[in-house]
Design brief:
With 200 residues, the chain is mostly helical. Helices cover 82% and strands 0% of the residues. Helix 1 crosses helix 6.
């Protein structure tokens, strides 16, 4: 195998392993912090709703009801929280092994069987330890933790990440664009005029 191809293989595996580690940590963080945040926000809203009548509207109340239901969904991951944290740590160790392997292979004149065996071992261990079920929105959070918090210049050297295609989740971009369109349509005078006339 050519050295350039082997280095790219390491970078691709490192992306999968590193992103997988961040996704496990994201699920762990959300399951740990979200229930308390939801409870605090709902409690604070309930107190302010007693003082300010403007907060007693159905839309806001429905929003907090949905948040309460999401707390039930999040609590389903509570029993496996330690597993997600453990797997995230193991995957981070594998990521660091790949980084070391990348620099060793870069400085080596040729790719030895030892290097190839090490890459196979890491890839197999990654496959065995990864949990397929991750929490909703963990993908968005993992994108932030991987691309914006972690040093990945050595991976980018091979994979050439682009901002919109790689660093921003597609589902986030779609959700954002849809929200903007809905807000623009809802607030536009033409939409208000059409709705007012169609409802007559």
């Amino acid at each position: 195998m050519k050295k350039e191809k082997f280095l790219r293989n390491i970078a691709e595996t490192a992306y999968n392993v590193g992103f997988g580690a961040k996704k496990h940590f994201a699920t762990y963080d959300i399951s740990l912090k979200a229930p308390g945040l939801i409870s605090f926000t709902s409690f604070a809203f309930g107190i302010f709703a007693l003082i300010f009548n403007d907060l007693n509207i159905k839309a806001i109340s429905a929003t907090f009801l949905v948040l309460g239901i999401s707390g039930i969904y999040i609590s389903m991951y509570e029993s496996r929280r330690a597993e997600y944290a453990h797997n995230g740590k193991v995957l981070t160790d594998l990521f660091n092994d790949l980084k070391r392997l990348y620099y060793e292979a870069s400085e080596s004149g040729s790719i030895s069987e030892e290097f190839k065996d090490e890459l196979k071992r890491i890839d197999k261990e990654y496959t065995n330890i990864s949990c397929p079920h991750q929490m909703i929105f963990s993908n968005w959070y993992a994108h932030y933790k991987f691309f914006w918090e972690q040093q990945i210049d050595w991976i980018d050297e091979q994979l050439k990440f682009s901002f919109l295609r790689d660093k921003i989740p597609l589902s986030f971009s779609f959700t954002l664009m849809t929200s903007v369109v809905v807000v623009l349509l809802y607030s536009s005078p033409l939409t208000k005029y059409l709705c007012a006339n169609l409802l007559k």
